Amino acid sequence: MAHVMAIVNQKGGVGKTTTAVNLGASLAMAGQRTLIVDCDSQANATRSLGIRETPGGTLYDVLVAEDPSARLAEVIVPTATAGLDVVPASPNLSGAEVELVGVAGREARLRGALAGLGTDHAFVLLDCPPSLGLLSVNALVAADSVVVPVQCEYLALEGLGQLMRTLGLVQARLNPRLRVLGLVMTMYDARTRLAGEVVSEVERHFPNQMFATIIPRTVRLSEAPSYGETILQYAPDSPGAIAYRSLAGEVARRATNG
Amino acid sequence: MAHVMAIVNQKGGVGKTTTAVNLGASLAMAGQRTLIVDCDSQANATRSLGIRETPGGTLYDVLVAEDPSARLAEVIVPTATAGLDVVPASPNLSGAEVELVGVAGREARLRGALAGLGTDHAFVLLDCPPSLGLLSVNALVAADSVVVPVQCEYLALEGLGQLMRTLGLVQARLNPRLRVLGLVMTMYDARTRLAGEVVSEVERHFPNQMFATIIPRTVRLSEAPSYGETILQYAPDSPGAIAYRSLAGEVARRATNG
Ligand SMILES: Nc1ncnc2c1ncn2[C@@H]1O[C@H](COP(=O)(O)OP(=O)(O)OP(=O)(O)O)[C@@H](O)[C@H]1O
Ligand SMILES: Nc1ncnc2c1ncn2[C@@H]1O[C@H](COP(=O)(O)OP(=O)(O)OP(=O)(O)O)[C@@H](O)[C@H]1O
Ligand SMILES: [Mg+2]
Ligand SMILES: [Mg+2]
Fold this sequence. Notes:
The structure is a homodimer.
Chain A: E1 3-7, H1 16-29, E2 34-38, H2 44-48, H3 59-63, H4 68-75, E3 77-78, E4 84-87, H5 93-99, H6 109-114, E5 123-127, H7 134-142, E6 145-151, H8 154-158, H9 160-173, E7 179-186, H10 193-205, H11 219-223, H12 231-234, H13 239-256
Parallel strand pairs in A: 1-5, 1-6, 2-4, 2-5, 6-7
Antiparallel strand pairs in A: 3-4
The structure holds adenosine-5'-triphosphate (ATP) (2 copies) and magnesium ion (2 copies).
């Protein structure tokens, strides 16, 4: 069975999509077949992977289907990276939150859908929107673990407590197996004092939960999505590519050590 | 009556809170008494303004009150900047979205609350969360105009179309007076080619809607919130402070020219 990981943080713009896309590509290139599920109606992960058309459907169609697990296989599309597939999103995904109000077990629709996945993929990465609504809860219920991108900025620190409380609630009520795989510091700008201070604060509050790999702020990472490429395709020897390959190694080790 | 402005963009981390706080402070320092309403359960605007305790209550208490307009006056608190007040947020605000499901007119609770404001304030700025859920819709229903912060990054461009469609729907169904006051480009990094490209794309798609003022990426802007200060207090002569004072001038002109 695949290891399912939610990439989650309700703070906006901290690098969730960038991490899902580039961590996914790095895992695939290391021989671990990976599926990215775009759970955000902004469809940034879909777009970053160069997917412009979704003839087979999107995550919305899976979540509202009679039988989500049967529908899943029809929407999975390959990407330009061998071993990396994606379940695309679309703007109508924001409608699912409203349409599923009142449906019993609405927070477990994604878990049900992924049950139909089979053994093709070693990892499934769930890219979450910047909120803790129904789509993020679906991801947390479906996940074995979470990876939390934390931007090296003061305001990003503020929300971590709220996130950990939410994770605790989901663990207690909906998904007892959920665990925090780690926190990954993103957009680290070595020229600023602030970045170093934020890293030490996170280390102090969440000892041993930070990944050793720190993702630097590099313009290459923000350019790659405009070409529909991952950093591994766009600038394979750049600091961003090196960092995400290193993160993939840490993630694979932590995931298999259980 | 105050001019009510929603600071909105469902894309995360684009500078909504930074714009609400520093535009608000700049307007207040130019003699235009201003109220900032923190509509985000992350409470980043509340924290950025140095508010740690909320003994009188928060926006949550206003939205769920029998009479929101009577409750509003009790939660408004002054900030360290003369002429700048704030309605603070708290984490329980995310509960309001669920609690108000099924309540008639739930999208107009904030408009109702602001009706009780009187003539003290010239401007009200509504800092929205990174989603288009009930809290953002409440802000759009209560607002006379919107200011859209647009980060100078490719992924931030993607969501603008979806945002404009949503604004159109709110205008057509819930608030016919709503208009776009302008788009403000944020985190402009002159060292990158990408920033200039994004600015020209926005100019092409939304001619004449961009403010002339472009907010540069400066570390001072990201440091100020950790001291609970606005940029006008923390580094009054810095490029960030100069830019937000300039933006305040443009906003005041556009707001009064109707
Ligand atoms: N390490 C980095 N260096 C430079 N830019 C980055 C880096 N990581 C992400 N970015 C850019 O920062 C912006 C925010 O990143 P991203 O969209 O991945 O965050 P997110 O958490 O997914 O946002 P949202 O909350 O809207 O889903 C994007 O424009 C992205 O290209
Ligand atoms: N012009 C700027 N230069 C440098 N840093 C900035 C600038 N504007 C905002 N920031 C920083 O970038 C981060 C994101 O900004 P901010 O929190 O204001 O965005 P937001 O749109 O309100 O985010 P959210 O979607 O989570 O509400 C913050 O850490 C902030 O301090
Ligand atoms: Mg994202
Ligand atoms: Mg904000």
